[in-house]
Structure formats: structure tokens, C-alpha cells
Amino acid sequence: MSVDRGGGHNRSGSIGRNGTHTKDDSSSYSSGLQVIDENKEFTAELPAYLTAQKLITAGFSYHVVAVFGSQSTGKSTLLNHLFGTQFSVMDEQARRQTTKGIWMSRAVEDTKRSDPRGMGNNILVMDVEGTDGRERGEDQDFERKSALFALATSEVLIVNIWEHQVGLYQGANMGLLKTVFEVNLGLFLKDKSTTHRSLLFFVIRDHIGHTPLQNLSNTLMQDLNRIWSSLSKPPGLEDSRISDFFDFEFVALPHKILQPERFVEETQKLQKRFREGISPGVDATSGSNGVSQRGGGGGVFLPVYHRRIPADGFPHYASGVWTQIVTNKDLDLPSQQELLAQYRCDEIAATCTAGFNQIMSPFEEQAKTGRVLEGLGSAMGGALSEAMGGFEESGGRYHKGVFERKREDLRENLEGRLRGLVVGQFSALSKRAVQEFTEEVTSILKVANAPGRSTSSNYDFAVVVGQTRDKAVDRFTTEASELRIPGAEWSDHENELTSLQIALDEIAARLRGEEMKRLVARLEKAIRIKLAEPVELEFRRMEDDSKEKGNLWDRVWKVWTETVGEGVEGFLTRAGSLNATEKERDIGAWKLRRKAWGVLKAKIEEEVMEGNILLKLRESFEDRFRYDEQGVPRVWKPTDPIEQTYTTAREATLKLIPLISRIRLSSGAEPPLAEFLGDPPSDFEEDVDEMGIAKDEFEVIGEAKQVDLSTRFKRMADAVFVEAKRSTVSSVAEIPIFFWGLLLALGWNELWAILRSPVYFIFLLLCGAAAYVVYTLNLWGPILRITNAMGQQAIDIGKERLRDIVADQNVAHPEAVDRTKGVYDDSGIIKLQTLDSEGRRRTGIKQEDDDE
Ligand SMILES: Nc1nc2c(ncn2[C@@H]2O[C@H](COP(=O)(O)OP(=O)(O)OP(=O)(O)O)[C@@H](O)[C@H]2O)c(=O)[nH]1
């Protein structure tokens, strides 16, 4: 068993020869990774291997090189020398196949060399199972497939031949190369414009030096050209030359066994060329004979050889290529690259979307509440740029067309989600702006309208609304601008801003309307309060009628118009500060005047309510009847013309009833209400008919009520008259003095008997003392009332008894008297002449008096 370069594994004991590795331990891949085993199975561990080798993130900064040649010709030995790999090398004693399938290993860093590009060891080296081995015998299937695989994935294909094989057909693998050239033509059939090339790097082993390298390379080139011309080329490529697809290089190495030092020396030179990449100034064009013009110097890997597969996509690409090859399908590399791009772009997009989700999902959850999402703008910007940036960085290395398509898909998908959030956020911001605006303006209005603040409170509604509106709009604009995504029209908030401004204006108009209504209501109340006293006063002196001041209604109208005029003036001043339109001001003023008329009507109705007006009429009557012209109360004497005074006073008072029954100025005309109110505004929101002037607008008391009022008043006046008359009668019915003399003369004996009898005298004294006590305690009133009540009770019982007796005897009362007949005289004055002579009349009059 031999170990090449002191560290290589022997064929039986090498780690990984059975294809099993620990994925995350790079040391376990010391012999590399068997990417395709002898059963043509592609490993699933390639991504793990590249990750362990820290190549997965290399992007395009890596190279792939494969070796190709007959079995046991020192391929693995060469690779190990060139790249520091530890591919297994055959035991010299056994001489049998060591490399089965295809192995891959990353070049080991050469610490002795400086590597300006930092990618000297970013080389994936593929050790391919040797061709022409006795183990596979006639079965050339695997060697064809592996050669094709190596060609499709590698930039440089090292063709390893011994010097003595040059000129041979099978020994120099010319048969296999023919197959390779053939399939290579097919690889890019679909994309003939491709500039893709490969380098066939011939390493001639055991070069003794007898035949110069130039001669050997000429021989090989002649053979290659001959093979090329004998190929059956697909349509369109009939005239193509081998140099259209391949570059060639020829290098000779000394005999490893016979000239070990020189062998090492030459391999080190070669190693340098592989490690250093391309030398400056060297272009990718090949010479006319297809041999690279780099000659023996310069780097090996030209950009044109690169398959443009990013390192992270390499495992998938290689696996896809192999699957195509194994299943004998046409291997179409461009479409393979597209497929890879699709696969990888999807994978990258999924990773980027996951990162995006991590940031945005919490916002999407919160958005369901419909509230404003704090920090949404910055989160959105960050999440989108991070996702798109990540995608562009990783996906941008893949097939351009696919990448761009996938990038648009990803952007569309992510922006679609953001769009939902942005629309929701716009709506939430707008809602909040409306709410805050309404609340703020309402609270300012509430403070301004607080009790105790006058209607001319020192605030300007228009200014308040303007400032609050600007504040709401500014906040909306600031926060909505944060949601702007460059290039996304839908994230523009202009439309939402316009809608918000319209909504705020509508709210301002509504609040102003409400404020105007409140103002009208406040002024209406103020007018009601202001009108109350003057109107009451005018009704107290309703009989006053002078030229200067006019009648009751002249004065009431004047008071009303003045008060309303002041109110309307106040309204117009306040409406100006509310920024109300002229129309709104007209409507408000008209409404205020109309409502003030209602206030006056209500006040008048209150004044003419039955009890009130009767009282006022009585007062007016009594003023005339009970007081003389100087205002001194009258004490009636029998000689006084009571009836005449009564008639005059009554008639004068009765005249007031028609006056107060209808609002009419002293001129006889109705007040100019219509002119005062003005024409109702044209498009008034309330029913103008309801608020318009009715036909009977000036009627205060209806006819039926007037009659009723007259009757009631007359009865009341009668009572006053009867009372006045009675006071005269009682003064007439005084006891004459002679009666007292007669009483003393006739009762002298009885008086003397009482004075002389101690019993009577003491009884008299007791009675006197009792009377004195009653007098001092002021108990006469209660005693008299009790006595009266008892007497009345006795009379009622007596009457009841009498009725029962009469009813029992079924006797009709023959002298039923019409209660009213004969009670009033022709002039309507109640008859009192039989008051003290005729018992029946007295009863009748008494009855009337009692009724009153
Ligand atoms: N004469 C000669 N022998 C060599 C040279 N290089 C390697 N060998 C020997 O050739 C034998 C085969 O070497 P490997 O490197 O295993 O050959 P291989 O082509 O990788 O073999 P397989 O992987 O089985 O196809 C070993 O015994 C090496 O020592 C060389 O340049 N000249």
C-alpha cells in the first residue's frame, strides 16, 4: 500500500471510499467526495460538502477542473500534485482500478504562494474513473457518460496520456474524444450564439524528451482535427471548426519514477499556472490551430470557460446534468442553466420571503385590528430592500432572463402583501385623522360653549378649524409618506390625502352647521329671557293707549323687534367668526327671527292663559270700579252712583277683550311680520311651510273663547258689584240709638236682678272673664267658625229631614223659581231691591252670590 505525497489514503482504507461521510466535518472529506458512484448514483451530499468546504457562498469565484484519461495512468497522482488533494492512488504492486465513479475535492490552499485574487484554492477538482479499464471491459457506457459530465461541468478538462500513447487511437483516447466532441456539439445546439468554450489541457506523462513537445502536440492536433472533420455535425454546424468550441494546451511532464525531482519541479510549475488564474493581458482567444496562444505560461482558467453557475447552484446543476445524461436525454446546457436558475431563484426567493415574513407577519396580524401600525413604514422599507437585495445578490448570478422574471415575481408577491398593509394603514391613518380632528374641534367648541361663556366668546371657529385641519393633514402626510415605496405607484398617498381633506371639510361644515344651530338656540333663549319682563309689563298696563307709545301691540311689537334686532346682530357677528357662508348666515338669521316670533307668541299665550287674563281683566275692572280718578279707594254710600260706575268700569274692561284677542297695531293693521322676517331662504333644509307665516298668525284668543271670557269676567264683575252693594246695605242696617234706650227700659228689671243676685253676678263675671281670655288669646275666630259649622250642619240636617218628609208625602214644590229670572235688570245689572224685605228674593240673590 502506498500513500502519495505523504498523507494520501490507501485505496482500501481511505475515508469515504464507500461514499459515507460525516457531512459537517470537513476533515471527514479528506479524500474528497464521491459525487457519482460506480452505480451511476449522484450523491446528495454535494451541498453539504461545498458548505463544509466554505465554497457554497463563493458565487462565481471558483473553478472546476476534471481529469480524463485511461485507467491507472497517474491521473490521481497528477491531481494530488497539482491541487494538494488526497485522491487515492493505485498500489503499484496491484495495478488495478482505484478511482470508481467520479470524485470531487477542493484544492488545498498552497500557503507558500501569494494569491492576489484570493481564489487559488477555490478549485473543485474532479477525479474521473479511468477509461479503457479491464474492470468495465467492453462496457463503455460509464466512461462516455462521465466524460460528458466532466465536459458539461468543468472549465478545463485535463487529458492525461503517456507519451507513448501519442499517435495511438484507443490509447490516446481519441475514440472517446470523438464522442466528447460529438456530444459537445449537441450541448449548445439550442444556443448557437453561445461563447462557451472549454480548454482541453493535454498532459503528456513520462516525457523522456526524445520527441519535442511541439511535435507531440502537432501530432495530437492533427489527430484531433482529423477526428473533428470525420464527425457527423448537426445542421448549421457543418462548417464549424474544432477551435470554435475548444482551446488546447499541451504540457509534458517527466517520468515520475525515473526523474522524480524534475517531475516535482514541473508539476509545481504547472500548479502555479492553475493557482494563479489568468495572467494579465492574456485574452481568451485561441490561435488558428486551436492551441492557446498562452504557450507554456500564464493562468489556465479564462472567464470564457466558466459555466456561470454560482457555487450555491452547482450541486443542483451538476445533479440535473447527470440525471439528463443517465436518462439518455438530450443534454441541453442552456436549458439546464435555466432550470437551475428557476430552481435556485425559487429557493432564494423562499429564503428571502421567510426573512420578509419574520419582519412583516406581526404587522399583518396587527393590521386585522384596523388600527394604525406604528413603525410600519420603516419596517416595510427594511423588509423589502432586505428581501430584494438578498435575492438580487444570490439570484443575480443565475440565468439573467430567469432571474429577472423571478425577481419581478418576488417583487410582485412582496409588494402585493405590502400593498394590503399600506391600504389598511392609509385607511387607519385617515380614520384617525378624522377622529382626532372631530374630537379636537368638538372639545374646543365645548370649552367655548361652556356655561357662563357669552355667545360672543373670544374664539374664531374658522381659525380653530383651519389649525386643527392643518395639524391632522400634516400628520397624515408625514406618516403616509413613510409608506412610500420607490417605483410603487400604489404607495402614493395623494388620492387618500384628497379624500381625507374632503372628509375633514365635510366634518368642519357639519360642525359649523351644528354650531350655528346651537348659536341660534342660545340666542333664541336669550331673546325669550329678554322679552319676558317687558311683555309682562305691557300686559299689566294693556289698557294704556297713548299717541306716543301706541296701544298694547304697538309697544309689544316695538319691544320684540328691538330685542330680535339685537339678537340677529349678535348672530351675524358670531356667524362671521364661524366662517359661515352668506347663505348659511341668511338661513340662520331668518331662523332666529322666525323662532323669536314663536317665542313672542308663546309669551303672549302665557299671558292670555285663562286664569292670567281673567285676573288681569279683574284688576283692570277693579282699578276703575274701586278707585276713583285720583287712585283713592272708594267707600260706597247709598247715595253713590254705584250702578253707573260699575257699568262704565265693566264696559271699559270688556273693550280690552277684543284688543287682546288679535295682534293689531293702533293703526288697525297687522304688524309687518312678513317684511320683518324677510323671504325664507330658497333651499332651506327644514319645511318652510311649517315655519312660514300662518293665516291666523295674529289671532290670540278665538271667538268662542272671547265669549266665554266675557261671561266669566261679567260674573266676576257682578260679584264685585254685589260686594260693593252689600257694604252699602250693611252700613244702612245699623241699630238705631232709641233701640238701645228701649232695650234698657224694658230690660231694667232683668239687669237689676242680675246685679243684685250674687249667683247671676258671679256668673256674669265668669262670662266676662271667659270673654276676656278668649279675646286675649284671639280665639274668637275659631269659636265662631265652629259655631257656624255646627249651625250649618244643623240647618243641612233639618233641610234633609224636610225634603224626606215632602218626598214622602209626594208633594210637588209649587214655588220653584227660575234662578236667573228676575235676577238681572235690563242693563244687565243684578237686582238687589228686595234684599231685606222679600225672603224668596233674598234667597235667590244669596244663591247667586254663593255661586260666584
Ligand atoms: N511511470 C509513471 N508512473 C506513475 C506516474 N504517476 C503515477 N504513477 C504510478 O501509476 C500508478 C497509478 O497511479 P494512479 O494515480 O492511481 O493512476 P490513476 O490514473 O489515478 O488510476 P485509476 O484512478 O485507477 O484510473 C501508481 O502506481 C503511480 O505510482 C508517472 O508519471 N509515471
Automatic annotation (TrEMBL):
One of its GO terms (cellular component) is endoplasmic reticulum membrane. One of its GO terms (biological process) is endoplasmic reticulum membrane fusion. It is found in: Endoplasmic reticulum membrane. The chain crosses the membrane at residues 735-754, 760-780. SUPFAM superfamilies: P-loop containing nucleoside triphosphate hydrolases. Residues 1-31 are annotated as: Disordered. The keyword Hydrolase applies. Residues 59-318 form the GB1/RHD3-type G domain. CDD domains: GBP. The keyword Hydrolase applies. One of its GO terms (molecular function) is GTP binding. Pfam families: RHD3_GTPase (PF05879), Sey1_3HB (PF20428). Residues 1-734, 780-852 are cytoplasmic. It is a multi-pass membrane protein. Keywords: Endoplasmic reticulum, GTP-binding, Hydrolase, Membrane, Nucleotide-binding, Transmembrane, Transmembrane helix. GTP binds at G69, S70, Q71, S72, T73, G74, K75, S76. Residues 756-758 are lumenal. InterPro entries: G_GB1_RHD3_dom, P-loop_NTPase, RHD3/Sey1, Sey1/RHD3-like_3HB. Belongs to the TRAFAC class dynamin-like GTPase superfamily. GB1/RHD3 GTPase family. RHD3 subfamily. This is GB1/RHD3-type G domain-containing protein. The gene is SEY1.
